[in-house]
Amino acid sequence: MTAGSAAIVGTGLIGRSWALVFARAGWSVKLFDPSPEAADNAAKWIDAALADDVPDADRRSAVRRRIGISPTLADAVAGATHVQENTTEALELKRTVLADIDRLAAPETIIASSTSALLPSAFSESLPGRARVLVAHPVNPPHLVPLVEMLGAPWTSAEAIARATDTMTAIGQSPIRIHREIDGFVLNRLQAALVNEAMALVDAKVASPADIDKCLTDGLALRWAFIGPFETMDLNADGGFADYARKYRSLFEIMGRTLGSSRPWSEAAMSVVSDDRRQRLPLDAIAERQRWRDSQVRSLRKLKT
């Protein structure tokens, strides 16, 4: 796919990261945020992130030159091939912003929302160009974590979804197709199942928050960083997944009857987890730890490729 022009509407944590994704792939990028301070802060963040993300100085300069700040929404979307909206998770705000984008963008422009909670039918139903509006939900931060969930409303055209999916692939992301609307999409539902059970285990005093974290960091995550749960099962039995299912299906059915809790987010459990985390990491050290996390993810991605 030939590199196009992307408009990034909303320049917070997700929007500024999206700008880096598109520019790194050769696209020209226009940033717009109704708060000039937010757009300026995004530009400063991009400068710092590029220093870590693109070692070569000439390429770094080339990527940076592709990113500009637009004074108005109309200027940002003018000539855009793809618009990525990243405003606050508030339905009425999304409706207003997307209506403005739909009115101002060219008819062939794809309009994608980064929403992680709102269904596309909730904010696109009344739009004249609703057939080209969809969700492209990234994982934070998208310039380091490539997965993007692609979901349309019942009226989103197959052509729009295909074009948006092709765009995500072309800019180096890893899109998955969600075939019908469902609360939480796929990634957050998988995450919720694990997180809710983790909270329930804390609430039942089965294990400490630190040891439950360790089950992921020193256990499941080391495999899941490279292969998912289905491939893990497939590789964990000589006869593949069918063999694994014959051996362990009943065990999972037993656990399934006891998993979960009517109150996995109890006040007591949340207090235990919060106290444990603050003992291990002061609030004022979070930013430094986030930079460490990004460095680790970056190294892991290099290792995987």
Task: Please give a quick description of this structure.
The chain is an alpha/beta fold and 305 residues long.
Protein model, in words:
The chain is built from 13 helices and 8 strands. α1 crosses α2 (36-53), α2 (36-53) runs antiparallel to α3 (57-65) and α8 (187-203) packs across α12. Helix content is 55%, strand content 12%. It is of the alpha/beta class and 305 residues long. An 8-stranded mixed β-sheet has the order 3-2-1-4-5-6-7-8, with helices on both faces. The model has no long low-confidence stretch (mean pLDDT 93). The protein folds into 2 domains: 5-178, Rossmann fold (3-Layer(aba) Sandwich); 187-304, N-(1-d-carboxylethyl)-l-norvaline Dehydrogenase, domain 2 (Orthogonal Bundle).
Features:
alpha/beta; 305 residues; 2 domains; N-(1-d-carboxylethyl)-l-norvaline Dehydrogenase, domain 2; 12% strand
Q: What's the structural blueprint in terms of helices and strands?
A:
Blueprint: E1 5-9, H1 13-24, E2 28-32, H2 36-53, H3 57-65, E3 67-69, H4 73-77, E4 82-85, H5 91-104, E5 110-113, H6 120-124, E6 133-138, E7 147-152, H7 158-170, E8 174-178, H8 187-203, H9 209-224, H10 229-235, H11 240-258, H12 267-280, H13 286-304
Helix pairs in contact: 1-2, 2-3, 8-12, 10-11
Instruction: Report the CATH architecture of the largest domain.
Output: 3-Layer(aba) Sandwich
Distance between the termini: 21 Å
Strand order of the largest sheet: 3-2-1-4-5-6-7-8
How big a fraction of the residues is strand? 5-15%
Number of strands: 8
Largest sheet: 8 strands, mixed
Q: What's the alpha carbon Rg, rounded to whole Å?
A: 21 Å
Helix fraction, binned, reads: 55-70%
CATH superfamily of the largest domain: NAD(P)-binding Rossmann-like Domain
Supply the helix-strand structural class: alpha/beta
